[in-house]
């Protein structure tokens, strides 16, 4: 390559670097706002990825990563041949699809209902009421559920007795584990999930609604033909992000609900990793399970994003 061409590329590189620095200095307040979130992902998400190497080792803490024996895919073979694997996988997938089919539409419906309220004080009161559970930990949510559903003087069972029905052992029943789980998810997260949808609805041009009213469209037709199409891209992006958590249902919530009577339908990868990794000290095996979860989530997000773009949606990248 000739000297003038090299000099030209070097000048372009320097020019782009100087432009970037000028942009940073000009928007330093914005970059400072981004910095905490950026550091969070670097420190707690990207740097720990280096520890995934122990999934291919027989890791021993006193020998460290460099001194531990390399075993290749032995832990993955053990995972896929474990008799519990398909039980855990099916439990995780069932709860995930319950989240997608039952929980995911609830914030959309709730946001549509809130958007139709015209009395501002009443609207803000309802919004606050449905947001509050999000700020309570899963420990509080599950504890309240235990008080309500307990066999011993639980409010729900006391009402059943008053109406002439028998008591139901919700907390120790494998049949009630999944309904109880999804209802708690809706109770805690549905209100908080409406925030993005309400923000998207606020950006819709009011003239569209005025024109539709002049054409004789009622509120349901306005919702169907204006509101939902206008927030469709937001729904698609949030759905894609939700698909990435296909095997990541949250450890704390499930762990608090688990007991000996419902473990068969409630054991998921998150609780399995806790049992194998922390209680039994099988660090490499639990790392292999976590690696498998992350890989499945990555493949599903990329596939769903590709399909979304094929159908004309924006996607997440």
UniProtKB/TrEMBL annotation:
Gene3D superfamilies: MetI-like. Keywords: Membrane, Transmembrane, Transmembrane helix, Transport. Residues 89-304 form the ABC transmembrane type-1 domain. It is a multi-pass membrane protein. The keyword Transmembrane applies. The chain crosses the membrane at residues 29-47, 93-114, 135-156, 176-202, 223-241, 283-308. Belongs to the binding-protein-dependent transport system permease family. The keyword Transport applies. It is found in: Cell membrane; Membrane. This is ABC transporter permease.
């Amino acid at each position: 390559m000739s000297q003038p061409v090299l000099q030209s590329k070097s000048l372009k590189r320097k020019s782009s670097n100087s432009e970037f620095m000028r942009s940073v200095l000009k928007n330093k307040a914005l970059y400072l706002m981004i910095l905490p979130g950026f550091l969070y992902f670097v420190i707690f998400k990207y740097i720990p990825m280096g520890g995934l190497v122990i999934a291919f080792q027989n890791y021993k803490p006193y020998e460290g990563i460099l001194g531990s024996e390399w075993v290749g895919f032995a832990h993955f073979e053990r995972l896929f041949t474990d008799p519990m694997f398909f039980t855990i996988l099916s439990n995780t997938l069932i709860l995930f699809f319950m989240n997608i089919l039952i929980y995911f539409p609830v914030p959309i419906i709730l946001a549509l209902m809130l958007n139709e309220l015209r009395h501002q004080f009443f609207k803000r009161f309802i919004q606050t009421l449905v947001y509050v559970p999000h700020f309570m930990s899963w420990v509080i949510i599950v504890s309240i559920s235990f008080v309500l559903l307990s066999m011993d003087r639980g409010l729900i069972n006391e009402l059943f007795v008053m109406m002439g029905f028998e008591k139901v052992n919700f907390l120790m029943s494998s049949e009630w584990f999944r309904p109880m789980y999804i209802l708690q998810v809706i109770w805690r997260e549905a209100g908080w999930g409406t925030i993005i949808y309400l923000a998207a609805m606020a950006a819709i041009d009011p003239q569209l609604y005025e024109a539709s009213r002049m054409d004789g469209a009622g509120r349901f037709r306005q919702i169907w033909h204006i509101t939902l199409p206008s927030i469709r891209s937001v729904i698609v992006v949030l759905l894609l992000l939700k698909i990435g958590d296909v095997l990541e249902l949250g450890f704390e919530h499930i762990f608090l609900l688990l007991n000996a009577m419902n473990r068969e339908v409630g054991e998921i990868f998150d609780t399995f990793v806790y049992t194998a990794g922390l209680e039994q000290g099988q660090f490499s095996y639990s790392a292999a399970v976590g690696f498998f979860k992350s890989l499945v989530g990555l493949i599903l997000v990329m596939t769903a994003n590709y399909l979304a773009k094929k159908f004309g949606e924006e996607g997440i990248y």
